[in-house]
């Protein structure tokens, strides 16, 4: 049975409303993505600059680096690894394609891997969707600071402080970060990387063992540089800043990925709605034409009866 004229018209109005909503959400996600990308780019540049300062400091220091006890604890592995913490960065909302599904799949993968090695796994969820998934699966969780659409420096500092407290207190023996990494508009990947104990991924893997002799061998023109305040104090401040900036970079990339997934999902939804609208308009015109034809036939028949 053919759909009637009024029913099709109502469906068109409903579809137009849906198209307006999806287009608005696409535009909003695009604006947020642009802002987050800019912040992530600046944060990455700053983080790299801090890393270079630390490298340079290690190159010119005149004797073996004597770092603070706290810093040594942060880069030293616990003797017995029993409890694993996984910071999971997710979303508060849906309508972001398979963004949350990919995170859930990675959670399952990481959990299975750690449990097989005999470790107790605790998740630290950021995002209501992640909390819901972990609660549904019955996983152990620990509290962590939540983050809004635009992560601030205060957010990264709070999260970093909490992670350090969990590690330094011995409540967790290792801490990983599970999140989306944003490499480009065409490449985002869910990764789980170790955060604590922190391992330097640049020149000096273990700064506590870098000696003057090592540096002289690399640079015959190596000289003596005096620092005020002490080089150890400068290094510790740079290290604290680097950790906080690293967390901020992870937060920004996670949010950038979320906004990109949502923008793409809404773009696809808008395209689908437009296709449906086109089909409905054709049906609407056919229905209207049939209605007019029927009315004309009725008029002609009525005139003949007269």
From TrEMBL:
InterPro entries with a match to the protein in the record: ATP_synth_F1_ATPase_gsu (IPR035968), ATP_synth_F1_gsu (IPR000131)
Subcellular compartments: Cell membrane; Membrane
Membrane topology recorded in Swiss-Prot or TrEMBL: Peripheral membrane protein
Predominant localisation class: membrane
A GO biological process held by the record: proton motive force-driven plasma membrane ATP synthesis
GO MF annotation terms: ATP binding; proton-transporting ATP synthase activity, rotational mechanism
Residues forming coiled coils: 263-290
UniProt keyword terms in alphabetical order: ATP synthesis, Cell membrane, CF(1), Coiled coil, Hydrogen ion transport, Ion transport, Membrane, Transport
Database matches in Pfam families: ATP-synt
Gene3D superfamilies: 3.40.1380.10, ATP synthase, gamma subunit, helix hairpin domain
GO CC term (a single one): proton-transporting ATP synthase complex
Known partners and oligomeric status: F-type ATPases have 2 components, CF(1) - the catalytic core - and CF(0) - the membrane proton channel. CF(1) has five subunits: alpha(3), beta(3), gamma(1), delta(1), epsilon(1). CF(0) has three main subunits: a, b and c.
PANTHER family assigned to the protein according to its UniProt record, in alphabetical order: ATP SYNTHASE GAMMA CHAIN, ATP SYNTHASE SUBUNIT GAMMA, MITOCHONDRIAL
Membership in a protein family: Belongs to the ATPase gamma chain family.
Function: Produces ATP from ADP in the presence of a proton gradient across the membrane. The gamma chain is believed to be important in regulating ATPase activity and the flow of protons through the CF(0) complex.
Annotated HAMAP family: ATP_synth_gamma_bact (MF_00815)
Protein name: ATP synthase gamma chain
Source organism per UniProt: Fastidiosipila sanguinis
Gene that this polypeptide is encoded by: atpG
């Amino acid at each position: 049975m053919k759909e009637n004229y009024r029913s099709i018209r109502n469906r068109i109005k409903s579809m137009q409303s849906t198209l307006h909503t999806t287009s608005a959400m696409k535009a909003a996600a695009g604006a947020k993505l642009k802002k987050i990308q800019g912040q992530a780019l600046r944060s990455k540049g700053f983080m790299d600059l801090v890393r270079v300062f630390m490298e340079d400091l290690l190159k010119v220091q005149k004797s073996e680096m004597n770092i603070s006890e706290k810093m040594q604890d942060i880069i030293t592995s616990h003797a017995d690894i029993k409890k694993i913490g996984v910071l999971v960065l997710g979303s508060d909302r849906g309508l972001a394609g398979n963004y949350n599904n990919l995170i859930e799949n990675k959670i399952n993968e990481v959990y299975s891997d750690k449990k097989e090695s005999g470790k107790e796994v605790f998740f630290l969820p950021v995002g209501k969707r992640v909390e819901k998934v972990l609660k549904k699966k019955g996983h152990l969780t620990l509290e962590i600071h939540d983050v809004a659409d635009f992560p601030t420096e205060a957010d990264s500092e709070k999260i970093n402080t909490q992670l350090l407290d969990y590690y330094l207190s011995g409540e967790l023996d290792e801490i990983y970060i599970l999140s989306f990494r944003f490499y480009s508009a065409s490449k985002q990947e869910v990764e789980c990387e170790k955060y604590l104990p922190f391992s330097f991924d640049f020149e000096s893997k273990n700064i506590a063992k870098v000696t003057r002799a090592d540096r002289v061998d690399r640079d015959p023109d190596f000289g003596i540089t005096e620092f005020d305040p002490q080089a150890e104090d400068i290094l510790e401040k740079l290290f604290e800043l680097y950790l906080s900036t690293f967390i901020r970079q992870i937060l920004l990339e996670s949010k950038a990925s979320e906004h990109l997934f949502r923008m793409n999902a809404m773009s696809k939804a808008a395209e689908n709605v437009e296709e449906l609208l086109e089909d409905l308009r054709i049906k609407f015109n056919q229905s209207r034409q049939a209605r007019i034809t029927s009315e004309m036939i009725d008029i002609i028949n009525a005139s003949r009866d007269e």
